[in-house]
Write a structure and sequence with these properties.
The protein is an alpha/beta fold. It folds into three domains: 4-192 and 299-342, Rossmann fold (3-Layer(aba) Sandwich), CATH 3.40.50.300; 200-295, no CATH class; 349-468 and 505-568, P-loop containing nucleotide triphosphate hydrolases (Rossmann fold). The chain has 20 helices and 18 strands. It has helices at 15-23, 38-49, 67-82, 93-102, 131-134, 147-156, 165-171, 191-198, 205-211, 223-247, 250-269, 299-309, 323-330, 367-384, 397-407, 424-432, 472-487, 514-528, 547-554, 561-564, and strands at residues 4-8, 56-60, 86-89, 107-108, 160-163, 180-185, 201-204, 276-282, 289-295, 310-317, 337-342, 352-360, 390-393, 416-417, 440-443, 458-461, 539-545, 567-568. An eight-stranded parallel β-sheet has the order 1-11-2-10-6-3-5-4, with helices on both faces. Helix 1 packs across helix 2 and helix 14 (367-384) packs across helix 15. The radius of gyration is 26 Å and the shape is globular.
Amino acid sequence: MPVTKLILPSASFDTESALASFALCKQYFPKEKPRPYQAEIIGVLRDALTSPRFRYIFLQLPVGDGKSVIATTLAEYLVHEMKQSYYLLSPDLGLTAQYLRDFPFLREVKGRRNFFCAHHKFRNRTCDRAPCVTNPRFHCEASKICPYLIQRSRASGFPSVVSTPAYIDHAVGGEAFTTRSLSIRDEAHKLESFYLSFHSTSITQSDYEDLFPGISYPLYDDPTFWKNEIDHIYSTLFTKLELAYEQQDHRTMERFYDLNEKVKSLQFLLREAKNVVVDVAQARHSGKYYTQFRPIKASAIAKPILDKVSEKTLFMSGTFLSINDRLDELGIPPNEVLYINKTVTSFPPENRSIIYLPQGSMSFKRREKTLPKIIDTCLRIIQSHKDQRGVIICGSHQIRSTIYNALTHLHNPDLLITHKSDDFSEAIDSFLSHQTLPQVFITTRFEGLDFHDRIAEFLIYVNLPYPPPMDKQIHSRLLLEQNTHLENVHSSCNPSIDEFGSCQKAVYCHNCRHWYDLQVATAIQQSFGRIIRTPTDIGTIYILDNRFKKFFGENEDMFLSYNRSSIKL
């Protein structure tokens, strides 16, 4: 059974019924007046959440259409009228903080590392390194004043909880949090990448030598080998920890705590060894080896977690783009899904302009030749927006550094702000705190940034964000997608399989690359939404990578209608 879809606006939409349903929730609507379609969408969602038909609801709304207002109205209706409880989850801490500012009835819960231990002997440690964590037999005399436990206790008994999926996904099923009626997952287009990253882990040569002194570290990248080896590692680790507990050897307990957590994660991950890629690498400074384990696909991981956390889930994003692909990413059955997609934006179309200004290919092989043209064009764009603030988005730190260093010799360096991999927060804070200066922020990061009210009025997109295809995880996923396509191949497809089992045409095949292209289309359109955040914002977006024209032509169906109409090729 296919996904149930509601596309708005629609001539066949039952507005009267939706508004009647909204009337039941209206007292929990936090604003004076709903925006266009907000009331109707709340009414449809109320019906879906109180019906046994749908377990998963996906809501795609344009930027500025009030996803958070819609979600909290529904959630508070469920709390007060149906005596239910919910989790409101966002992977973005900035968005979590915004929820707390906008909706003071929410109660936040954070992980242990955000608090310092209350025990007088360990006050220099955060709670995730406290002895009550590393030593299960430790009795803490300060537990009643532990700041982590106090805020956890307050949140566990409260019906409206805001947190991150990293915390709640792990905490539900533990001693404080249970399955709730509803979870609301904002920025849900990130969920697959979140689960792929969160469930990746590594073992180092030092870890191994601590357990098996004198035994050579195994340099194998075969998941099947490690599936058998991890049980041997766990049994040895368990024996050492039990001895440490008996002897109250705190140093050994602390030393092996992190490894124990990693081994438990690996046991879970390697249950499906075919869904794991293994990389063996050598640390640059120490010269010692480490082995990294990463899942290829999140579907087998995600769905059990989603179902554990809540009976129903509302997923929200402005860029799902392809609902069937998102369901496949998370392992969700289509017959239990309602997909609501509002296809028009309330922002004036003349306020948004997306200009294709090709300077050459920014592929790895050609970028060195193209970068001088990119730098010259960036300078011209900055000069044409003389009194305005802007953002330059780069695909890597190397590209960012090259552009920044060149522009400091061509433009006032005091008006250029950038960052390295470890000081992004300081850089963005500096940009946001000097809004009267025509500064340009040169960055590799864009998701979660909010340049509303003309904090930035132009954006330069330097290169398309293609994931590296030779990365083992990406390559394995592409091969998986190709094999899935070939199993359901149409007669018009004539695959050319090489000696390694790969189709030589796959790199050019839209069907084989559909998942890969979806990642690129999502990233591009997420960046579009950074500067046009309110109906009064005006912004111009420049795309300089000449690969965009071909990409857009092949994947136009992945672009939101209001973005398509704004693109000038």
